[in-house]
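User: structure tokens for this one?
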Amino acid sequence: MTVRRNSVAFGDLRGWIEALRKAGELHEVDAEVDIDYELGTIMRLAQGPGTGPAMLFNNLKGYNKPTSRCRRIFGSALNNTRRIALMLGLPADTHARELVKLGRTILQDNVLPPRIVKTGPCKENIVAGKDVDLAQLPSPYWNRLDGGRYLITYAGVVTKDPTTNVMNVGIYRGMVTGRDTIPILMWRAQHIGHHVSEWRAKGAKEMPIAVAIGWEPSMGFCAGSPVPKGVCEYDVMGAIRGEPVDLVKCETNDLYVPASAEIVLEGMLGLEEDTYQMEGPYAEFTGYFAGDRSPKPTIRVTAITHRNDPIMRGTIEGAMPGSYSENAMISSIFRSSTAWNVLDRAGVPGIVDVWGPTVCAGTNLFVSIKQTYRGQAKQVANAIWGSTAAHVRYKHIIVVDDDIDVHDYAAVDWAVAYRVNAGENDVVIMPATFGLGLDPSTRKRDRNPTLFGTGKWHRMLIDATMNLDYDPDPEFDGARFPPTVWPSKEDEDAARARWKELGLDKYKTG
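Assistant:
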């Protein structure tokens, strides 16, 4: 299962931008762009189904003066497999299947602990206490129906377990509500939620938090992926880049952030509900506005540190047919890798391939197996749904035989059409499990993170494998399913030998 690659350390966000520029993957916009609705609309229209460029906006309306604290926004960097391959040190044309296999290795085998340094570029400017003013940073209205300006869309949010001191780096959205306040959306089943519970158990009213905005792509890649509990994302980032992550201590709390991050927000997260502030809604990764307007845990920002002339890192969320977000692309790969590792650890045999289609970011999952006994597809679903990684993904699982390419939606659809008979227990519902609180198919009441801590899903398995309960058919040499209509290899080879003679070589055929 070894995928050969060259580890790549870009140094910082600027090194990554330069690598994209050299690869022809960057588009710079020098025309003035309004951060209210226009910037987000341009990014959404440009991203396409993994075809659009990474984008650097150099002329932000209202922030393009020499005295502006931040004048640029960068985004859309990881919403295609070419750029993810570049980040991982692989050829641009690497198939998503190979990226999934590599993701398996990164998630379960490789760690490289960070390196603590005294200072770094993120300390070039330090603003603290009453001088903190979030309005000095460009916080777009990414979408017209967003509940407010979102400063935190694709940043590494750092918290730590108060007992083990192991840090976690996650991605959570954050909306500016005042000079120094940012309510964030989080769920108790996430690692940050575990930290909240631990700090509360110790009687704390606040817990330290830091937000690193703009660094190498491995930060967003890992922070948005299901890294196992107890493993720090900084360790995984080090493994991806082949070099330890240089970390510096925050000015106003004891957390650590990448020394060359563009912007760092330091603060304390309120743990008592009377400190919560209203947040939402927001255009979420489901492709719908979600995370209803409600009180959320709020960051009290105690300091802002940043590089000279910093670059804001942001992203447009929400995958739809024809428009794939960064989160959707990354989730397809890492959620597939995670599910495959879960199946291996559970001892499910015969796993051939795993894929969570990009447009649904791993909420649907396709698994190909070499079937050797009855009930194998049910074992697949039970193993995945029983894992913590299933909290916000794997709502629907389709299991197919090993002759079906899970990256070919037509092949999966064909298997569902002719190998599924619902009355034969090929469709199984797992009711009332934990699940994604942003899914609009869930009743609104069940999406309340403060009341329930997570969402509520009724999950479904579609067993699209050939049914081993069927009796062998003597007409087809004891097979349980009839043969397909595809020609025999002998007939196919004979026809292919005449392909050019028949004038068919100029057509794209099967």
